[in-house]
Specification:
By secondary structure, the protein is of the alpha/beta class. It contains 6 helices and 9 strands. The chain has helices at residues 29-33, 49-61, 63-68, 82-90, 107-112, 155-161, and strands at residues 14-18, 24-28, 37-43, 73-78, 98-102, 115-117, 125-127, 130-135, 138-144. The longest helix is centred in the middle third of the chain and has 13 residues, at 49-61. The radius of gyration is 14 Å and the shape is globular. It starts with 13 loop residues before the first strand and ends with a helix.
Length: 162
């Protein structure tokens, strides 16, 4: 499938997370994004160096600036199970508006056309690093990285586009 691009409607899909009562929940992406301006950003893996030290902290740190520019939610997607995503979220002192969402089988990542085969590194199929600015389910900005790069998908890149 071709990667998602500006002008596309994001596909619907089901992701998992643990709620504030530590209950496992399933949620529709369209439920999270319909009628709102959101950032959906994806990373190759929880606890990996670039994801944990740069990509995710950038969105946490800039969440108030993004909110001030009309972004209602920050949706982090990783091809990990919900238990890993819960532990990763707990590793940050504060996560502000970032929702940590698990795409355990990479089903949603495939629907976006953003899968990355890292089998030769022992990681299996993961997500390319990306950041999408979505307004009422329509992609307004699609910043998708090549390989393991981190050059166009940061919170600052999204802020610059707003």
């Amino acid at each position: 499938m071709a990667p998602i691009k500006v002008g596309d409607t994001i596909p619907d899909g089901t992701l998992a997370y643990f709620d504030e009562n530590d209950q496992l929940q399933q949620v529709s992406v369209h439920t999270l994004a319909a009628g709102k301006k959101v950032v959906i950003f994806g990373v190759p893996g929880a606890f990996t160096p670039t994801c944990s030290m740069k990509h995710v902290p950038g969105f946490i740190e800039k969440s108030e600036e993004l909110k001030a520019k009309g972004v209602e939610d920050l949706l982090l997607i990783s091809v990990n199970d919900p238990f890993v995503m819960k532990a990763w979220k707990k590793s940050y002192p504060e996560t502000k508006n970032v929702k940590f969402l698990a795409d355990g089988s990479a089903t949603y990542t495939h629907a976006l056309g953003l899968e990355l085969d890292l089998a030769e590194k022992g990681l299996g199929v993961r997500s390319r690093r990306f950041a999408l600015l979505v307004d009422n389910l329509k992609v307004v900005v699609a910043n998708v990285e090549s390989g393991g790069e981190f050059t166009v998908s940061s919170a600052d890149d999204i802020l610059a586009a707003l």
